[in-house]
Amino acid sequence: MEGKIFLARNPHPVARPDLLPQGLLEALESTHSWQREGAIIGLSQLLDSNDPLKANTARFYLEKLVNDDSRKVSLAAQRALSRTGHEERTSPPPQPPSRPVPSEPGQVHREPANNHGTARQRGKNSFQTLSPNTSGQGKLAEIPEEIKGKWNWGAFLLSGIWGIGNNAWIALTLALIASPFLFFFPLVSMGAFLFLGWKGNEWAWRSKQWDSVEHFQKVQKKWKKWGFTMIGVLGVLFLFLMVIIIIIGAFA
Questions:
Q1: Alpha carbon separation from 112 to 95, 106, 234 (Å, rounded)
Q2: Domains along the chain with CATH numbers
């Protein structure tokens, strides 16, 4: 037999769920849409795996999530496939070159506007890193760059109270341990509170579900405001107490 040999890709890739991490499988099977959305991050990374079975399994689940009941999850899956070049695309048929219309005497001929720059700019703007909301998923949560490594005044100033309000029980535990040593070993306690301020954003993002990064930042600004207000009130009370003590000492 003579002729060309064509190699075709299997339209139904083999899925091997056993190759996926257990935490990722649990997120995919979750009834919460935000957990399924968070699983798309792991699937996107597996699409570029050197193991074809892992890549095919990731593609299988992403294509399945395209038909998810949640539109947010569906769009995230489509973007993941599109970004890695795994989504099928159909190009529009080429258009014949336009011919310039003969101009009348004295009429200035104008070339049609070139939209290539605008199209490229639109494509550049639409190609954004997929960053779904994974807050509240513990260790599986991905910390957004907007809050990663940033100082949290609420965690530093209000410590245990802040930990209760943000479901960050590790912050509450650390504050309870450090507070008794404040008068005996102030440097140790201060180090613990500084650590709270440094890790506050990460703990709050992993421990509680937030609507968005903007929502998270808005709430943490309120905690900062409450913290400084409390410090101010305590400072005024301390000065007032000192004045009372001085007056009593003067008349004693």
A1: 14, 19, 71
A2: 17-83 (1.25.10), 148-251 (no CATH)
